[in-house]
Amino acid sequence: MVGAVLAAGNLRSFVRVLFAAAVLVAASRSVHAEGLPVEPGLWEVTWSMPDPLRGEPIRQVERTCVRDRVITAERVNAKMQQCRISNAVIHGPTARWKMRCDTPAGPMTGTGSLRSSPVAVAGSVEMTVALGALEIPVTGAFKGRRIGDCR
Among positive and negative, which fits the CA dihedral 64, 67, 73, 77? Predict the structure, then answer.
């Protein structure tokens, strides 16, 4: 059952959701306490995580154009369909948050953190996938960098 649920592409969908969250959280720029100084432009973000069933690494590289200079937790949540970020705390160049995703594979809950500079970001998430009475820990890491202007 677990293999079928995760093999059906849900784990890769989960990686995409986490990628979107990382980019959106990392793309915030504000002089207020709720933002991180990140330059808008074309960003490349690499996600990696082990497949919790086979142990094989899953790696995904995506590029996205970041246009917004200020992104709040509300904006992040508005752009994600399956997940919600809560309890976001930003202190200097670091951020941490709680996250819950309601997916076809089952509910996922956990935490994330990142460190950002104007042209780079790196972080991780630790989630638990609940499949009935079974809970599977999933840890992912991401790193991103601004690679140019949006086209």
Answer: negative
First to last CA, the chain: 44
Q: Domain span at residue 123?
A: 2-148
Could you tell me the pTM of the whole model? 0.74
Distance CA(51)–CA(28), nearest Å, equals 30
How many domains does the chain divide into? 1
DSSP-derived secondary structure for 104-118: TTEEEEEEEEEEEET
| d(C-alpha 127, C-alpha 93), whole Å | 23
The single residue listed with the structure tokens 């200079």 is 69
Residue-wise pLDDT for 4-41, tens only, equals: 344 434 445 555 555 555 555 544 433 344 666 778 99
- The pLDDT of residue 42 is 95
Nearest to 110 by CA among 91, 78, 84, 72: 84
Torsion of CA 33, 37, 40, 45, to 10 degrees: -100
